[in-house]
Amino acid sequence: MALKNSLDISIVKNNIEAATISNSKAVAGALPVVTSTITDNEQVTSVNQKLNTGTTIQRNNAAANALNAGVTGSILLYNGGRVVATKKRLEELQAQSTHRLNSQIQNIIADVSTAYYDVVRQQNYIKTIDKSIDASNQQLSIVKTRQSVGLANNADFFQAQIDLNALQQSKDAQQLIVAQAKTELLRLLTAKTDSSIQLIDTIIIDKNISLKTVQDNLIKNPNIIISEDQIKINELIVKETKAQRYPSIRGIAGYNFFRNQAAAGQLLLNQNYGPTLGVAVTIPIFNGGLFRKQVQVANIDVKNASVQKQILLRDYNAEAVKLYQAYISNIN
Question: What is the pTM (predicted TM-score) of this model?
Answer without folding.
Answer: 0.80
